[in-house]
Amino acid sequence: MIDAHVHLWKKQAGRVNGLxxxxxxxxxxxxxxxxxxxxxxxxxxxxNSAERLLANMDFAQVAGAVVTQEYIDGEQNDYLRxxxxxxxxxxxxxALYEENGxxxxxxxxxxxxxxxRLADQDLTHHAEIFEAxxxxxxxxxxxxxxxxxxxxxxxxxxxxxxxxxIAIGHFGMVTTPGWQEQIKLxxxxxxxxxxxxxxxxxxxxxxxxPSAVRAILEARDICGIDKLMWGSDYPRxxxxxxxxxxxxxxxxxxxxTAEEKQAFLHDNAERFYHFDHLPEMPYIHxxxx
Length: 289
Known about the structure:
Layout: E1 2-6, E2 13-16, E3 19-25, E4 28-31, E5 34-37, H1 50-60, E6 64-67, H2 77-86, E7 91-96, E8 110-114, H3 127-136, E9 139-143, H4 151-160, E10 166-168, H5 179-184, E11 191-194, H6 198-201, H7 210-223, E12 228-229, H8 245-251, H9 258-272
């Protein structure tokens, strides 16, 4: 497996709705004006480290992962450069765009735009970041506002930079009206869709997420299975399920063919993110077996 959407942070120092987000210990964070379980409770020190991620990946047979970023965690560019340098075969990383110019791209594989949280949500007004990504030869990851609120402006940027690899996150905010309009953007050759957060979006239904599987099939019918990639949204979704559960509900479904599962869970991300030397991931028997 290759995970197209995970988060890491050395020290959480973000913001949500203008209020701070910071670690409280025990995996909890102050999230604006409420306390949220941000990570599994055993992550007691607030350090969402690459070493913990890799240990989870090894156990769940996930060979590679793409580290995205979010305003609620605070910018983690320096730490992610260290992670990328230490684990070049298994990790890809994104610099965070914060509406204050182009971030330093040395040591980075991509740029993350939290488009739904931008102060100016017209993506054509952020052309400099698309230009910078295209010039640097890196991919662009983007989490968009609900439905079709930003699809027209992103379409304009896609057509302006037709060779720029773009991955749309959160499966187009699949549980909101009009999500299919984001999926349709994958008709463009350079655009992919990743499913980071899909178990969060279908959390009320919970494992094994039959509606999430049906949504994947609907997206397949819109743009083709070769345009879709699995993502877990680690570690936030691991407060509800195990890391393995974030992908094995796909593996256990009888609604997808073996070829479709292979493409969704591995092949498409391997091609898009240029993973070349992934390790073999043996199954590790656990103590409950």
